[in-house]
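U., I forgot to send this yesterday:
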Amino acid sequence: MLHADSSPLSWGLCWYKRRSHSSPNIEPAATVSNSAVPSSTPTALPRVVIIGCGFGGLEAAQALSHAPVEIIVIDRTNHHLFQPLLYQVATAGLPAPAIAGPIRHILRKEIARGNLTVLMGEVMSIDTASNCVVLDGGEHLHFDHLIVAAGATHSYFGRDDWSKYAPGLKTLGDAFTIRRRVLSAYEMAERETDPAKREPWLTFAVVGAGPTGVEMAGTLAEISRHTLHEEFRRIDSRRARIILLEGGPRMLGAFPEDLSQRAKEQMEGLGAEVLLGAKVTNITAFGIHYETTEKAADGSRPVASHFLPTRTVIWAAGVAASPLGRSLAKSTGCVLDRAGRVVVEPDLSLSTHPNIYVIGDLASAKSYADPEHPTVVPGVSAGAKQMGRKAARNIIRKLKGLETQSFRYFDYGSLATIGKRAAIALVEIPYTTRTVKFSGFSAWLFWLFVHIYFLIGFRNRTVVFFDWAWAYFTSQRHARVFPDPHALEPNAVVVHRDPPGPPPAA
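Result:
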């Protein structure tokens, strides 16, 4: 949980750290010692603290690295994650290091300049009364300017009890969990001798037909039909059912209707089933309960309840802003939208605290490319990157005594892949109002090269290129390994086979 902290002790410590903040060291809240003063006293620089090293936080740190500021980046993990390809790790298409890199290695040049410090820790609260960030160990870290890029998490729409049966996909840990559950389901099906009891193990349900859900469902269909079909003796993996459930009227609702329809056709062409207008009402260890509205002969539209027996459910239906947004609202009085995102000013700052910026998935931001008609910024990586750069530049402008500038989002288009040779694309032509729509093999190739281009590091681009080329020609996925289930999920609910019945009569 996150809590606002404005106690006299924390205020006194933050004041103390403000006096000596040229040192990147931090110290526990219960201890104030002269040992925190560095042996040499460099010229004090304004301190910029960046919470989160995702797309937005990383861009902000790099944009500030040449400015006369001290930068401290805080992240709860030691790695930057290329989230658009996380589903590839979950489905054994790529190893984790191909889409993730150590933050310290990525920012090594900036660290070498001497004004950037990276700390691994979780921010518990933000004390705006004294401009301090409170870390999980009780440390208080002063800031002159703050960039909050804490991202988003899963939303189960008030049914958090579903999470143990239907994991979402936001972190590497989530990807390993899904990989284990998917591959284990085939193993359990191989052990099951009763065809009726085997069926749920070979039924995979993905809830939510946004880009993540579509990518997951399409890849699962490929795995069952092309990767595993020669590797089991008792089961035919090609008979596995891949079912994509969407509560809305169409897949990929952010795309034009014709592209959504084309995506549905490609998904069904891969062998997956698409259930539109299917609203999930409950998830258990044994399946999904959902409702649909069906038109009756008399013209009425009664609600019909259904149950889908399945042992493997993947959640891709809801996203909620980081809980840090609620902490900010409590300590600053800022406004949150329905999803818990922080409503920001045109320059991405808070109206009550202009030295605090919120970017990425945590921000409810608008683009002022047309100041008279601002538009909502979508929650995509391109938006987070652009917000990170703009927040950094606005801080630099403030330091120079200049006015900040409104954020302008440049939309380069949208891509979604369904499977091998199946994708849709909506691409904006620069400096024009025209868009190009295409689908199928050409869109899939475009999607491949765009994602390889934006990966960080030559090694990662090379690894992904060769892994995808190998998978294309062989349909093999050699990252199909996972440790002992309890090593990743020591407290997880493990669904076993039914207990054996009484011994047969002699």
